[in-house]
Amino acid sequence: MSNLYGDQHRTLQDQFDTRRLADRLEQLILKDTLDETDRRFIGSRDMFFLSTIDQHGRPTVSYKGGDPGFITIVDERTIAFPSYDGNGMYFSMGNIAGNAQVGMLLIDFENPNRLRLQGAASVSADDPLLAGYTEAELVVRVTIQQVWANCPRYIHPHQKLKPSRNVPRAACETPLASWKRLEAMSDVLPAQDVPRLGAAGGTISVEQYVEELGRGKP
Predict the structure, then answer these.
(1) Please, what are the averages of pLDDT over each run of 10 residues along the chain (218 residues)?
(2) N or C: less crowded end of the chain, CB within 10 Å?
(3) Structural domains in the chain (count)
(4) Does residue 99 lie within any of the structural domains?
(5) Could you count the other beta carbons within 10 Å of the beta carbon of residue 81?
(6) 8 A C-beta contact, residue 5 and residue 22
(7) Looking at the domain assignment, is residue 172 inside a domain?
């Protein structure tokens, strides 16, 4: 019996004569704990893609970024990461509150490599790790159910130009997101952002916002 494949996967595997190959891969690479190689790779990442499930049962994917090391390896079966100030939708966090099942895809674009992780997540505003993440609002802990390395041959190599200026850091003030300065947003900003609007230069038009995007200032 497979812990990874269902009838729908088997149908396609049989169609293309890959059932034996698929079984061998599951046998060799599928794990429920992190080894030292996994720990080093995860600890070096500054971004990943997070898949969650909404109240209609629909999957959605979001990008999560930070400085290298922002994913904390709690133990061989648990990782954690912060939720920073975003667009106020709390879409991923709300999805996790309603359905704990998540998927994570971690990629190294400079030296093509990737790792997939499936698990059960929880969200907390009282997690003891919160104090270690500058400006984080919540901490997500993921209990690992399955983890495995994926073939990286289709990853197009990309080079990182510079870290995002918007990642919260203790050594500097995090700038107000440019889109929060849009005139259409000025009357619905959270209370903590209102005084920052003036300090950032006040409201801007859509044209000014597009210009700032072009200068790499999201």
Answers:
(1) 94 98 96 98 98 98 97 98 95 98 98 98 98 97 97 95 94 92 93 92 92 82
(2) N
(3) 2
(4) yes
(5) 24
(6) yes
(7) no
